# Entry
Amino acid sequence: MKKLFTILCLVLLSSYSYSKEVIPEVDTGSRKGPPKAGTVTKKGPEGEMNRFDSSKGPQRVYKSVRESSYYKKRPYKKFYENGQLEQRGNLINKEPDGLWEWFHKNGQLELRRTYNNGEIDGFWEGYYENGQLQLRGNYNNGKLDGPYETFHNNGQLEQRGNYKNGKMDGFREYFNKDGNLTGTKEYKVGNLVK
# Structure
């Protein structure tokens, strides 16, 4: 009975191995298998890509269609460990572009600013965890330019001034938490005027 069982197993095993479809191995770089049908450019794989999966057996071929998104505008999101949104925006050529927002761990907006070709450009706002406005200003080609204000966490104005090409320029006013003016200074192209 054991001999009969052993012979039967050998016959079935040998017939199974001969019935499998044999896919010729072609050297396609670091993997062996059928050649890939898509193209690979500096931007990454494009078009229909066939990948031979040797762990699944020689008859398994997976197909997927991928478009290169390197030069396309695509959304970006990052999350805190608790699942809360940390930041969001858009990328072009792996650089930030358009409106970007950052959030505190409690979900309140922390910072909002715009980018153009990877440079901060346009209106910029920052907020305290309680939702109160902390600062606001304007950027031009990556440098502060124009009116700039900061606020105490109770919402009262803390200081107000102006920037020109990234440097303080003109009068800067300082206020206490009650909103009363406590001092002024004058700047010329980043230098304090006495």
